[in-house]
Amino acid sequence: MQVFIRNPADLMPATAEITEALIREYINRAVTDVFKTMVGREPSFSTPADTPQLSQSLTPPDRPQVVGTVGFLGDVNGLVYLHLDLAFARLCTCHLLGMTEQELEEAGDEVINDAIGEMTNMTVGSFKNGLCDAGYPCKLTIPSILRGTNFSIEPISSAVRHVYFFDCAEHRVVADILMKSDDQG
Amino acid sequence: MRYKVLTVDDSKTVRIIVKKAFKPFDCEILEAANGVEGLAVAAKETPDLILLDITMPVMDGVEMLTKLKSDPALKAIPVIMLTAEGGRDNVLKIAKIGVRDYLVKPFKEEVLIEKCSRVIDLKPVNEGPAKAKSILDPADILVVEDKPAIIQQIQDGLKHTPWRIKGVATQGEAIDCATKAPPDLIVVSLSLPEDAAFTFFRMLRTNLKTKYTPVFALVVKTEVAQQQQAQTMGFSAIITKPIEMGELESKAAKAMNLDTSQRYYAVNGDLMVMRLPETCSPAVLAEAAAYLKPKFAEAVDAGFNKVVIDIHQVKSLHMGIIKLLFQAMQTCRDLAMQFVLVGNTQIISECKGFEDTRGWTFCDSIDDAKATLSKAPAAAPQLAGAAT
Predict the structure, then answer these.
(1) Smallest CA–CA separation between B240 and chain A, in Å?
(2) Cβ-defined contact of B57 to A142 (cutoff 8 Å)
(3) Is there a contact between A142 and B87 if contact means CB atoms under 8 Å apart?
(4) d(CA B48, CA B135)
(5) Which of B34, B45, B66, B129 is the most buried (most CB within 10 A)?
């Protein structure tokens, strides 16, 4: 699968084509780096046997999810959804902020949302920095959070979608990347 | 001086992580959630350092940085970017506006602190009033020397102290030891191959954990050029080979900021005992003199008003000792303390040879001194001690 993007010859002397392999490499590096540095966990890239259909929920049903979203805008446009199950989101928040479960309970959901928003920001930042250095300058948007159980995201038809799964102990992290091809707006 | 660090980030999580990272250091963390708030706090508080994110609502970091650098009152404040925006071109563009450093998220707290410590002189916070360490407390000394005989000499020479002396032979081992568990003092031989001592010293001074650890240079007496280089670089002291252990011990205690008063002053029952050692070098006398008034005053404050000035260990009398003894006696009189002298035959006979000390009278032992003091009338201290 390939994404065709305007070749900004007037801005960049040379650009690498954004292939699926490149996207996979960048997102793998970004997820691994962020989780290892910030929460001391090393997720491994995985291709689950029970890979869900993209039209279905990407995460196990009935398991509450916290999903961080950050976009990137510029010579390449897109959006990344980072899915974490609630239990893992709580664990990451505690580690990031040096809090106990009890303290987190008292602090409330807002703290979890902010922490996962920031982890998504770092992940997408790292991912898009790869794109920038490959000749596609773009900027990040402000993070937002979705919460819920058993939901699926439906991209618009012009978007190209890449979904990657990462295993982190008993938890799964899903990076759902939607990129807009330039010739369609 | 308490430094002020302003963190400007729309993520509360990042601001909490920054606060957590700086917690062990003596500085105040100010917070702002966007560029507008950041500029307002900067103008009001004039922080010593700003940590700035880029992607923020209301006003982003690039706009805030531009405004900050165009304000004459604020442009001197150093800024370190702390952001997920790390594309080469972005970094270059922002660096041109004027930043001290650039840290791309995700980041380790240690790296953040290390970068900040290059801009402000971060010092560990003291939790409660610090109790001065004394020469009776254990301390760790790392000796970096490729000649085992020298390490052995130091270990033997200081074995009467409670200090733990660890010897290593190479720069690699030294770095490992110094960074894992920073010692209280490092002694490094300048004769290590390839100027390793100087490289090691530079590394110690750039590492926040060892930035303030005293470092002694160990060098052959005749190697003047190396001694000068060590002095210029800022080694805490130079110890020459052959090592004079008394000098090393005294300099080490001073460098480690140890309370050495116990060497000369102790409470024995209801008495304050001032004791001079066998050899009284100028350094020893200066050290004893420095504690004299505070120690005697402390004794009076605690209810002790009798002093034994014990010089029975002193091998030979000289002017420095006599001056200190006069000073001690005068302090006793000023504080209305009774005092007696304890000496040995050699000292007593030498005292007869000086005009000023001829009239001094001595007790033979501490017990003798105690007995003399107990007989003396409390209201007449001048009668209880040496004649002057």
Answers:
(1) 46
(2) yes
(3) no
(4) 38
(5) B34
- Chain B positions contacting chain A at CB under 8 Å are 10-14, 16-17, 20, 54-57, 83-90, 104-108
Q: What pLDDT band is residue B385 in, cutting at 50, 70 and 90?
A: very low
CB–CB of B95/B67 below 8 Å?
no
Task: Give chain A's residues under pLDDT 70.
Answer: 1-16, 48-59, 181-185
Structural domains in chain B, sorted by start: 3-117 (3.40.50.2300), 140-255 (3.40.50.2300), 261-383 (3.30.750.24)
Inter-chain Cβ pairs, chain A and chain B, closer than 8 A: 72
Q: List, in order, residues 6 or more apart from A169 with CB less than 8 Å away.
A: A41
Q: What's the one-letter identity of residue B253?
A: A
Q: Tokens at residue B181, please?
A: 């568990």
Sheet-wide strand order for B362-363: B265-268, B271-275, B306-310, B338-342, B362-363
pLDDT digits (tens, 9 = 90+) for A117-158: 999 999 999 999 999 999 999 999 999 999 988 777 777 777
How far from the centroid of its chain's Cα atoms is residue B374's Cα? 41
Give the helix ranges, DSSP H, for A10-150: 20-39, 86-97, 101-107, 109-133
Query: Under CATH, domain A20-46+63-184 is a member of which superfamily?
Result: CheC-like (3.40.1550.10)
* Cα separation, A118 vs A116, whole angstroms: 5
Question: Mean pLDDT in chain B?
Answer: 89
Residue B130 has pLDDT above 60, yes or no: no
> For residues B15 and B6, what is the distance between their CA atoms, to the nearest angstrom?
9
Cα dihedral sign, B4-B8-B10-B16: negative
